[in-house]
Every structure is written in C-alpha cells, then in structure tokens.
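ingest -> validate -> predict -> emit
validate: passed (alphabet ok, no gaps, 73 aa)
predict: started
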Amino acid sequence: MQVYPLAHHRSCPSVEVASCRLTKWHASSCGMRRAKVKRLVLRINYKKRREERKRREEKRREEKRREEKRRDK
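emit:
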C-alpha cells in the first residue's frame, strides 16, 4: 500500500503537517471523503507521469542533437 504525503488539511487531527498522510483507502480520519482522497492521489500520479514524460522528451531531444552534431562532422 502506497502512502502519499499531501498538503495538510484544516480538518486533519494530526498536529504535524508531515504526519498528515493519506492512502488511497483513507476515508475519514482526516475528515476527507474517500472520493476527494482518490482525486488527490490521481492528480499526484498524473503530475508524476507528466514530469517523467517531460524528462524523457528532453533526453530524446538531447540525443537527437548529439546525433546531428556527429553527422555534421
């Protein structure tokens, strides 16, 4: 089971911000609805995937540039 560190919510009973963690199956101990948690988790996953895709694109572009330089010589 993955635990996602998220932003602190006002209704969370935990005092420390860092200890306010949610899992996909977390229901109401933070006063958040399961659907809301799911949405947050999905958004985090989406952000991660998007960043990963950006990195891969950048690498690919860099590789192409190097290839072009090699050909030009």
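DSSP finds one helix and two strands in the chain.
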